[in-house]
Amino acid sequence: MENKPKRDSLAVALDAVSDRWSLHIVRAVAFGASRYTDILRAVGAPRDVLSSRLRKLTASGILRPRSPEKGRLAGYELTQKGRDLGQVVLVLKRWGDAHGADDVPPVDFIHDVCGEVFVAEVRCRACGSPIRSGEISVHRASQGC
């Protein structure tokens, strides 16, 4: 009997960021860090680990090297895949605000369109209702033998 979980899109997504540092790096780049030294300061990972994770995130298409511009050194930027992952980080931030330590200050995100504080919510694509714990079930797409 095999104990290994079946691969599905959620497993692939979790594998992409399952190490200790990847989401911290995505967060740092989303917050404006682009050069290696800026990311190192923002994340605090050991240099060899940071280099390895930057390579992994680049190889997986989450980050890409940024071309040097006049007055700016080359660095990293999020790809569309990385910006999409940023939406996951926003939902994790909401969880952290609700369940984090009392002495950790929250970070507010402002929706540039309306100027108000943004709070991420997961909603049903069909009816638009917010999804709450216990309101979903799992249905696996059928796969061939």
Total helical segments: 5
- The ordered string of helix (H) and strand (E) elements is HHHHEEHEE
Shape: globular
Strand content: 5-15%
Structural class: mainly alpha
Low-confidence stretches: none
Radius of gyration: 18 Å
Tell me the distance between the termini.
17 Å
Strand numbers in spatial order across the main sheet: 1-2
Name the average pLDDT: 87
Strand elements, count: 4
Largest sheet: 2 strands, antiparallel
- Portion of residues in helices? 40-55%
Describe the structure.
The chain has 145 residues and is mainly α. It has five helices and four strands; from the N terminus they run H-H-H-H-E-E-H-E-E. The chain has a two-stranded antiparallel sheet with strand order 1-2. A two-stranded antiparallel sheet has the order 3-4. Strand 3 and strand 4 form a beta hairpin. Helix 2 packs across helix 5. The two termini are 17 Å apart. The mean pLDDT is 87.
Detail the topology: elements first, then pairings:
Elements: H1 9-16, H2 22-30, H3 36-43, H4 47-59, E1 63-66, E2 75-78, H5 80-99, E3 109-110, E4 117-118
Antiparallel strand pairs: 1-2, 3-4
Helix pairs in contact: 2-3, 2-5
